[in-house]
Amino acid sequence: MHSEQLLDSAAATTGLDDFGEPSFRDGLEVLVDSLNNEAQLNAIGGPAAEALLAGALVNRLTITDYWNQHPELADQAITAPLFIVGVSRSGTTALSQLLSVDPANRSLLSWEAGAPVPPPQAETYHSDLRLLAAIEAEADNMLHLLNPDFKAMHHDPPDMPIECVTLMAHDFVSLQYNAMFNIESYAEWILTRDHSATYRYHQRVLQLLQSGVPGRWQLKTPHHALAVSTIAEIYPDARFIWTHRDPATCIASTASITASLSGTFSDADWAAFEGRLWTRMLTEMIERTSAARAALGEDRFIDVDYRQLVSDPVGAVRGIYRDLGEPIDTNFEASLAAHANEHRQHKHGRHSYTFEDFGLNRDALNERFTDYRYTYDL
Questions:
Q1: Whole-angstrom Cα distance, residue 116 to residue 99?
Q2: How crowded is residue 329: how many other Cβ atoms within 10 Å of its Cβ?
Q3: C-alpha torsion angle, residues 290, 291, 296, 300 (rounded to 10)
Q4: Global pTM?
Q5: Which of 51, 116, 270, 316 has the smallest CB count inside 10 Å?
Q6: How far is the C-alpha of 34 from the C-alpha of 40, rounded, in Å?
Q7: 305, 278, 270: which is closest to 368 by C-alpha?
């Protein structure tokens, strides 16, 4: 796999050659090198990785071209967005799905993240041909066919919110790649990378998408926890919703889910690597978010306990809106309750794993996160 060939192929596919801000090439080069030299991709993994990168480049080209044709998108104000910044496996997906029930909120849905151009329109948002095609393709989802157990761990339906890493992947600063492939050098690079250009690109895509379907954005990905300070610079009036769960459990669960996913694309045994990688990443997420909270102030943050999110999801959302100073009417509460009942935990099966599977020791992890656990009563 070669980055220049990927760039040339994307340009040939689209007939376009303006990729926008060139800093994306830094991440592309590191990612391609890491995939070639570290990932030990199998017969499925090689073509899958190449297709994933090619798709990201095609989307970047078409988004940049649309912006070039519609400079008025710069006038699209993104007002008071909500960023869910909990670590992976702390309930971020469940909470984002609950918040999407509010018709005033604007969510990044899976289908539109996959094909943002042209931007969806309000009158056809729920009948857009791209949505219908994504729903139809769900029955033949290749990942589910290759790895049928993965759906019990994580599932992103086409018409539900998806993580912002899908957009950040166009800038090649995205933990989406680390969830799919075992690429340590790229992970280390992400931890040292200034995320400003990535969130400027992220903002441009949101402006494009909301030009046809407006609303207050509610967004999520654990990757946000690595860059809260940068997000606050790009989105000055953003609020941050921090989901809290026992970090040792989150690390083991993350290692399990990424081992399952990356195991589709590599036949090597990566269990111990996954344990080390996600211990490092989740530690960074917690430490960086804690530092940003201290700098930005308590009023920018809203806390959600995973235990309440599971046992009383409506009450958890009610608490968020109370802290936002926004009322919840009975119709919204009823919709929340209906959603929680329909999308209950373990709907697609139970996710089972052990700490020992990934070379992890719960007692040692509990010790590492003593201060965090004490602060949030975990």
A1: 21
A2: 8
A3: -10
A4: 0.93
A5: 51
A6: 10
A7: 278
What's the rounded Cα separation, in Å, for the pair 41 and 49?
9
Query: Is the distance from CB of 6 to CB of 53 less than 8 angstroms?
Result: yes
In terms of DSSP H, where are the helices of the chain?
3-14, 24-37, 45-69, 92-99, 110-114, 129-138, 142-146, 150-153, 165-168, 176-180, 184-192, 196-210, 228-234, 247-262, 271-296, 306-311, 313-324, 330-342, 362-368, 370-375
Bigger pLDDT: 154 vs 242: 242
Nearest to 152 by CA among 352, 310, 351: 351
- Return the ∠ at Cα 36 (arms to 150 and 140), rounded to 5°: 30
Sequence-distant (6+) residues with CB within 8 A of 376 are: 244, 303, 305
d(CA 68, CA 173): 23
Indicate left, alpha or beta for 297 from its phi (over 0: left) and psi (-120 to 50: alpha): left
pLDDT in tens, 278-328: 999 999 999 999 999 999 999 999 999 999 999 999 999 999 999 999 989
* Alpha carbons 136 and 159: distance in angstroms, whole number: 12
Closest-CA residue to 278 (of 210, 235, 335, 225): 225
Residue 358, classed as helix, strand or coil, is helix
User: Tens of pLDDT along 57-87?
Assistant: 999 999 999 999 999 999 999 999 999 999 9
Say if CB 257 and CB 154 are below 8 A apart. Answer: yes
CA distances from 250 to 9, 241, 302, 322, 363 (A): 39, 17, 20, 27, 14
Are β-strands 105-107 and 216-220 bridged in parallel, bridged antiparallel, or unpaired?
parallel
- What's the mean pLDDT in 187-200? 98
Average pLDDT of every residue of the chain: 93
